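User: Design a sequence. Structure:
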């Protein structure tokens, strides 16, 4: 059963509280500003572990052998490219609100000669230009916490997924082991924002990241939200001691 979108703490975290722009507009502007350095920072700040997380997510998608795949919050297209290389789908579409990020992605796709298979489109996760049940699988890596209205975005993803289709989401989470948790929080709140600011030259981008992660409903709570938005059999699988979580669900 689908529910009416409700207020969620993750939706209230914005890159700049002093801005008059909506969260959606701020997030688009933020990622446009760091697009050229985003891939490097992703791998550098995660010590390269993010590549393994994406491989696990792609393996989950591959289980149903989808012909059509939607990559929500595609960014620079890493997930879409990985899906194309791992599987033999007929069509992959990536949507994102940051045109700057997708420009980087389109160049990567062209360099790999995958432009006939992968299309990147500017799109809003809460109002996507696709038919009901158009996709066999939907994936979203580290973009759900950026939705302006989390439940609205998830409900829209459910709409465009076919019955029996699969949803795979990667999102940051919090380790539970005491020592790991303390180290993680120190890195996330102090080291990561400093390194991100030095490399990206953007003062808010990597301060917003830990703030948005802290507010995001994770684990069982997020699984409950997925099921409220129309999905079923939602599961959470912690990765790397709980630094990130791999969520799966069906329609």
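Assistant: Done.
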């Amino acid at each position: 059963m689908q529910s009416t979108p409700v207020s969620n703490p993750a939706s209230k975290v914005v890159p700049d509280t002093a801005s008059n722009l909506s969260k959606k507009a701020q997030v688009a502007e933020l990622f446009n500003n760091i697009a050229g350095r985003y891939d490097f920072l992703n791998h550098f700040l995660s010590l390269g572990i993010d590549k393994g997380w994406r491989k696990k997510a792609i393996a989950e998608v591959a289980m149903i052998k989808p012909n059509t795949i939607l990559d929500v919050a595609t960014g620079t297209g890493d997930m879409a490219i990985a899906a194309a290389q791992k599987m033999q789908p007929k069509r992959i579409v990536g949507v994102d609100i940051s045109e700057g990020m997708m420009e980087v992605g389109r160049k990567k796709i062209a360099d790999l000669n995958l432009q006939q298979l992968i299309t990147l489109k500017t799109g809003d996760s809460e109002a996507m230009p696709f038919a009901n049940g158009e996709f066999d699988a939907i994936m979203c890596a580290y973009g759900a916490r950026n939705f302006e209205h989390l439940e609205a975005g998830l409900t829209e993803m459910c709409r465009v997924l076919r019955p029996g289709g699969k949803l795979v989401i990667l999102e940051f989470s919090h380790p539970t082991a005491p020592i790991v948790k303390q180290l993680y929080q120190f890195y996330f709140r102090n080291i990561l924002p400093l390194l991100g600011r030095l490399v990206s030259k953007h003062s808010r981008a990597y301060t917003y990241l830990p703030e948005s992660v802290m507010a995001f409903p994770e684990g069982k709570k997020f699984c409950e939200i997925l099921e409220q938005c129309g999905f079923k059999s939602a599961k959470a699988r912690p990765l790397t001691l709980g630094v990130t979580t791999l969520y799966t669900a069906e329609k």
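The chain is about 45% helix and 20% strand. The CA atoms of residues 42 and 48 lie 8 Å apart.
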